[in-house]
Every structure is written in structure tokens, then in C-alpha cells.
Amino acid sequence: MKLAQILVVINIAIPSLANAQSEPAKPKYFNQNVADSNPLRTEQARELDEYIQTIAADRSRFHQLFQPDYSTTQAFEKSAAPLRSAFCESIGYPPPGKRPTKAATFQQIGEDSIGTYYRAMFPILPGVHSEGIYIVPKSAKGKTPLIISMHGGGGSPEVALFNGGANYNDMVRGAVKHGYLVYAPQHLFRADGYPKEIRRQIDDRMRLVGTSITAVEIAKITYALDELIQRPEVDSNRIGMVGLSYGGYYAQVTPAIDTRIKVSVSSCYFGVQEGRYVQNELSVPTDFRFMNRMTLFNDADLVALICPRAHQIQAGSKDKASHREMGKSIEPRSAAYYKKLKLQDRFEHVVFDGGHEFDDRSAWAFVKKHL
């Protein structure tokens, strides 16, 4: 090769070699600073937060599920069936498990001038009883109306009945004094030898097997009713229910499911969870956090499952505002169901002069009127 040709080759090769040496080597894998994508995660959180708020404010699902027919009371009840079915599904009612065939037992535990007292036990689920106090008034003659009297959180039938009844006043004995049979069931709030959080723990575990403490405790009432209405002294067509605080919750959700309950009084409960939800969604206790609790099954609309049967809501003027004010604001939605059926007298929202307690005067007047 001539010298000139060699020089040309060298001149071409040297720049190519220089360029090759100046370019960085390509990495084996693509990488990026992880923090660069943090805004995407922040946006995801913002989107989901706004989505929850949008769904919570959207009433269209409720109106699609429940299309009330006000032409007659029978038509209204039929139109409420899809909402009742959805509510039962939401809480896991009826609870799974074969119902026992063992008979209920009634053991006399006492007697006084107004009635005879029994410890009643009703097998309702595998290994599970509904247990409470059953009272037959001395004044009972023939078929007699029955009142379910439901204690509140941390309470018991004994607390509501004995030694003056505490803030329950005459919620149990008052029924007996008015000539009603009474079943006062026990629900789970505390138990010797178990953790303080036993109620929450049991509820959490129940949800993992397809039910909830709300469903089981409703069953402790409704399944006991199945047995009680077979007793010769019970008038199966005249059943009422009263309850204070947590018992007020059950005096709303139980008649929402069991239409045999013809009149109910929910004291010092209505609207409490709705108020908590507005302040802080997660301040709502876990046993009230069943599916769609605040979209399809809020307190005001659950009353649609009680209507056209009689229902009274009580709130104390001296109770905490959280147990009264939200209830006052949502009460018109409940009242509207009765008003459109021209049955206004079957619904009452009473703010009485008192605290977190059962108002005997208004309750028993309402029960007497409608039972």
C-alpha cells in the first residue's frame, strides 16, 4: 500500500477511535431515581380520596336499589324488599350454621308483686345461645303482647332491670307494669377472662367467616322470637321492641329485618354514626362499619325498612350533642316515608328533657297507642 493510501486510512480511523472513546458505555439495565415517581403515588392517593368522597355523596345507587311505591302500604313494603335483602347480605344475616333442634329452657329465678322472672335460654346456632331474662306480668290474662327490651353498650339485662335500672329507668320493668311480657336479651360487650376488646375481636373474626356480630345479635332476638311466639301466653301479632344507646341501634336494625315487630322505640342512638362519619370516617366503631353502611344503610333510610310499622326515635336534650344534633338533621328523611303514606302518627322523633337515658313517658305512650 502506498504511503498516501496509508495516511488516508489513518486519518479516517483516528477520528472514529476518538469518537468511540468519548461516548459513555451504555448501562446493562435502565434505571431511574425512585423518588422521581413520588408525585404519581401522591396523585393516586388524591384520586382515591376524592373517589371515596364522590361515592359517599352519590345517592344514585340507593335510588336504584330502592324505588318506593306509595300507592298502598302493601305496595310500599313490597318495594322495600330489595333494600331489605341487600341489608341482610351486607351484615351477613342470617348467620351461617345449622340451627339446633334442642328446646329452649325457662328457669324461674324470682317473683315479685308485678311479675314472675325466668332465665331463658334459646339455642340458635351451633354451640350458641340467646340468653336473657323473660318476665311474665301478674296481670297477664290469655294472649299478651311481648316487648323485647334491649340493653346498651357495656350493659346487661340485670343492669337495666335491677336496683332502679340506672339510666334505663323503667325500660324493662315499665313494660311489665304496663302489662306486657318482656324478653330482655344479653349481648356481648365484656366477659370475665377475655380481653377488653372482645366484642371487636369477635366481630372481626365473624366477618372472616361470612357474618358479623350485628347479624348474630339480631339473630339472638329474631330466633328467640321464633320460640317465644309458640308459648301460649304470647300474642304473636303484638310484638314491640325498645332499646337504649346500643340497644337503640338494635331497636332500629332488628325491626328493619323482622316485620313481626309492630312497634319500636330507639332511644339515644339515631344519627350518632352519621355524625361521627362527618367528623372522621374512621371514628365510626368497627361493628358499625358493615358494607355500604353510609351509602345504602344510614339510619334515616333504614327507617324505610320499618315503615309502615310504628317507630319512635328518642334523644335527650341534655345528652351529648353527638347523640342528638345529627339525628335532628336527618330525621325529615325518615319522616317522609310515613308522610307520603299518610301515616304520620306512626313516626315520632322526640327530644325529651333528659340525658343519655330511656324516656319512659313518651315511649310507653307510643307503644300503647300502636300495640
SSE order? HHHHHEEEEHHEHHEHEHHEHEH
How large a portion of the residues is in β-strands, by DSSP E?
A: 15-25%
- CATH architecture classification name: 3-Layer(aba) Sandwich
| Total domain units | 1
The CA-CA distance between the termini, in Å, is 122 Å
> Class by helix and strand content?
alpha/beta
CATH level 4 superfamily: Alpha/Beta hydrolase fold, catalytic domain
Major beta sheet, specifics?
Answer: 9 strands, mixed
Strands side by side in the biggest sheet: 1-2-3-5-4-6-7-8-9
CATH fold field value = Rossmann fold
Keywords: Signal
Organism: Gimesia aquarii
Protein name: Dienelactone hydrolase domain-containing protein
GO molecular function: hydrolase activity
Task: Describe the model.
- By secondary structure, the protein is an alpha/beta fold.
- The protein has a single domain, classed as Rossmann fold (3-Layer(aba) Sandwich), CATH 3.40.50.
- Helix content is 41%, strand content 19%.
- The protein contains 14 helices and 9 strands.
- It has a 9-stranded mixed β-sheet with strand order 1-2-3-5-4-6-7-8-9, with helices on both faces.
- The longest helix is centred in the N-terminal third of the chain and has 20 residues.
- The protein is globular.
- Keywords: Signal.
- This is Dienelactone hydrolase domain-containing protein.
